[in-house]
Design brief:
Shape: globular
Number of strands: 0
Structural class: mainly alpha
Strand content: under 5%
Helix content: over 70%
Order of helices and strands: HHHHHHHH
Largest sheet: none
Number of helices: 8
Radius of gyration: 16 Å
């Protein structure tokens, strides 16, 4: 297991070195359900985080299977509302990139945290993802259709991660952990502009 000081230092270094993902502001139309639904499917940062939440929930089992995806979706919508209201939130892009790495590592290490702690970690990252998407909604659009589409796609990606994690079961648990490591690697690649 990685010592806490090393993990914190690594996270700080990744945040400091992170470049914007550019997957959020001004990309495509943002005023319809379909546009919102398609957005999480359009970038590696979105897809890997949503699936990682599902995989981690499946590895944990029990209440985490519904609580962690619900925490992400709920707080993501709050972040989206804050973004639509143009309320500033610091470190949005670095936070999004950190979420890809951190959630990937949590899956790769099969980190067993209490459900409430896992939900808090997931909620923090969801706030960044939601805020980024809320800021893209045009002034002349209500954005509710877009956010509904994004929420539905997010929940479906969480469900895909859960289904994959549960279908692998205990026998193939290592494959879920490999997927987590791949997620973390994608996050590092995005942070340094290699992916």
């Amino acid at each position: 297991m990685i010592p806490a000081k090393r993990l914190c230092l690594s996270a700080i270094l990744l945040l400091a070195a992170a470049m914007p993902a550019y997957a959020h502001v001004g990309i495509g139309t943002t005023s319809s359900f379909t546009a919102g639904f398609m957005h999480p499917l359009s970038g590696l940062d979105h897809m890997t985080v949503m699936i990682a939440v599902g995989l981690w929930a499946a590895l944990k089992g029990g209440k985490a299977i519904w609580a962690w995806p619900a925490a992400f979706a709920g707080v993501m919508l709050v972040g989206g509302a804050l973004g639509m209201l143009h309320m500033p939130l610091p470190f949005v892009e670095p936070g999004i990139l950190a979420s890809v790495v951190a959630l990937g590592l949590l899956v790769a290490l099969a980190t067993d945290l209490p459900v409430s702690t896992g939900a808090a970690i997931i909620a923090l990252f969801a706030l960044f993802h939601g805020h980024a998407h809320g800021t893209e909604v045009p002034e002349n659009a209500g954005g509710l259709e877009y956010m509904a589409g994004f929420a539905v796609a997010t929940v479906l990606l969480h469900a895909a991660g859960i289904a994959a994690g549960l279908s692998l079961g205990l026998r193939f648990r290592g494959l879920a952990r490999i997927a987590g490591a791949a997620c973390a690697a994608i996050g590092v690649g995005l942070a340094f502009g290699v992916v």
